[in-house]
Q: What sequence folds into this?
């Protein structure tokens, strides 16, 4: 054990275009590691490969080269999946399930017992302020409501590590404040957090460390306190723009 | 609750709550009624004809529902991106496929049962004195239809794991049809003089499903006789083995899949 909860070594992933099977890299030798209890923010312009990185870390995709370990296990292994929570990038839904049924379904995938599940679901619905709408079918939810539900489902197993792909997207200011609160609370409980976001002020508020990804390569990585206080940067935005050459 | 059951329940709910299902159901009922009304104009109509029409409609509509629901099974999860949520939970590919399949089986069971009860009601309405003793035979025929639908569902589930709905529909219906040709492929291979062709045809026969037995049992039932026990056991074993084989294959294919 290296003591790192998330460990990526030389991850590469190519996209094979259907035309002449030409390969172009999505990720190119990406290495990063996140310690126990750390909050890590992965930044980068659109199409940089952030979502791809997260998908590899949760086992939805396999790297072409390199390896990814989560909690000492190969990314995507069942034993690792038991202890992580994942929030995908876009809202997704089952047309005919209610929010409540959806959360119960997710809990059942972890084999939670009936009473335990009921309490957990109730608690999570409150956490994301969705108690009132819990009995509406998911197709009638707004984007932000789906996002809240997504956050709730990612926490159903009280995970050690959470992977959140743009947790703030689609949320109103109250929602963003709530998510920030949830993040800080997870952090206080010693959970490891890995997330992507374009909302730099929020990132700057909650992260310990950030990495900047551009065209599939990690172009910069530093602790927030070095960037903002001693690094001579006005804020995270200035740092970001400098690194990606915007 | 195990993941298989959770996925099955979820699939069942998703399918049963879809309005399209009810449209099909109403359609099936009206066709049956129409068929009977038209039929009763002819003289000396036998109650068996009503049964035949009803069973045929159940088989066809059940088949259509199975093919469409089955081929959309995995595709819908992909399209709505719910698959991301499922496969980042501790759920194996086999559990996923099994759960999806069982959920649909539950749904088809409800459909067949409801249509069967409707048919029974109709029969009693047309001839109140009839039946009671005949009910088990009707039940057996329905069971046979259900067995066939189980097979069609497995085919559809299999194709839906790696191809788009339209192709899956085409593949599923083709194989279903080929299944009914059954032994003709074997006969054909015997007729051929070319050894290689013979070999090819007979090995094709062994891979492809053979549902001819189903038809045979059905015709036995139609004459109000009981089919022999061996045939029934053979048929059950054959269909279930084939279903296991298809689902196993589906989960192996699914295991290797990435979800970009
Ligand atoms: N389903 C897909 N099929 C083919 N290529 C894809 C697919 N999804 C993403 N890509 C490609 O992979 C690259 C990285 O995409 P990715 O989604 O990881 O970016 P991102 O950093 O998350 O961007 P964003 O900030 O817009 O979410 C992009 O160039 C994109 O074109
Ligand atoms: Mg992204």
A:
């Amino acid at each position: 054990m290296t003591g790192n909860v998330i460990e990526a070594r030389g991850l590469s992933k190519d996209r094979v275009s259907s035309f002449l099977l030409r390969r172009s890299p999505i990720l190119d030798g990406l290495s990063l590691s996140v310690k126990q209890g750390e909050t890590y923010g992965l930044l980068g312009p659109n199409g940089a490969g952030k979502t791809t990185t997260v998908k590899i870390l949760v086992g939805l995709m396999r790297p072409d080269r390199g390896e990814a370990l989560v909690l000492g296990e190969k990314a995507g292994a069942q034993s690792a999946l038991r202890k992580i929570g994942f929030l995908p990038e876009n809202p997704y839904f089952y047309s005919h399930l209610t929010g409540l049924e959806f959360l119960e379904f997710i809990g059942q995938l972890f084999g939670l017992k009936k009473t335990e599940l009921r309490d957990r679901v109730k608690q999570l619905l409150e956490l994301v302020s969705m108690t009132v709408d819990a009995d509406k079918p998911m197709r009638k939810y707004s984007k932000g409501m789906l996002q809240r539900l997504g956050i709730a489902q990612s926490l159903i197993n009280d995970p050690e590590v959470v992977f959140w792909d743009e947790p703030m997207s689609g949320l109103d200011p109250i929602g963003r404040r709530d998510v920030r609160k949830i993040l800080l609370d997870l952090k206080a409980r010693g959970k490891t957090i890995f997330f992507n976001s374009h909302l730099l002020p929020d990132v700057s508020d909650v992260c310990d460390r950030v990495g900047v990804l551009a065209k599939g390569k990690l172009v910069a990585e530093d602790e927030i306190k070095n960037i903002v206080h001693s690094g001579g940067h006005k804020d995270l935005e200035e740092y970001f723009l400098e690194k990606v050459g915007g | 609750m195990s993941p298989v059951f959770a996925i099955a329940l979820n699939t069942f709910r998703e399918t049963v709550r879809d309005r399209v299902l009810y449209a099909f159901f109403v359609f099936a009922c009206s066709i049956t009624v129409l068929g009977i009304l038209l039929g009763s104009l002819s003289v000396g109509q036998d109650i068996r004809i009503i049964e035949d029409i009803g069973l045929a409609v159940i088989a066809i509509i059940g088949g259509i529902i199975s093919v469409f629901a089955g081929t959309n099974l995995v595709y819908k999860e992909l399209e709505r991106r719910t698959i991301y949520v499922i496969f980042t939970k501790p759920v194996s590919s086999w559990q996923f496929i099994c759960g999806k399949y069982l959920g649909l089986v539950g749904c088809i069971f409800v459909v067949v049962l409801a249509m069967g009860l409707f048919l029974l009601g109709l029969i009693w309405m047309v001839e109140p004195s009839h039946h009671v003793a005949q009910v088990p035979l009707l039940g057996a025929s329905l069971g046979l239809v259900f067995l066939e639908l189980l097979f069609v569902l497995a085919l559809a589930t299999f194709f839906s794991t790696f191809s788009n709905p339209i192709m899956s529909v085409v593949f599923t219906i083709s194989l279903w049809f080929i299944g009914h040709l059954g032994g003709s492929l074997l006969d054909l291979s015997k007729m051929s003089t070319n050894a290689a062709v013979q070999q090819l045809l007979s090995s094709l026969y062994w891979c492809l499903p053979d549902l001819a037995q189903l038809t045979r049992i059905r015709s036995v039932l139609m004459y109000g006789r009981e089919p022999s026990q061996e045939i029934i056991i053979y048929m059950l074993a054959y269909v279930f083995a084939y279903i296991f084989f298809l689902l196993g294959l589906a989960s192996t294919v699914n295991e290797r899949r990435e979800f970009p």
Residues A 50-51, 89, 165, 196 surround magnesium ion (ligand 2) (CB under 6 Å). Chain B touches chain A at residues 1-3, 5-7, 9-10, 13-14, 17-18, 80-82, 84-92, 258-260 (CB under 8 Å). The CA atoms of residues 159 and 171 of chain B lie 7 Å apart.
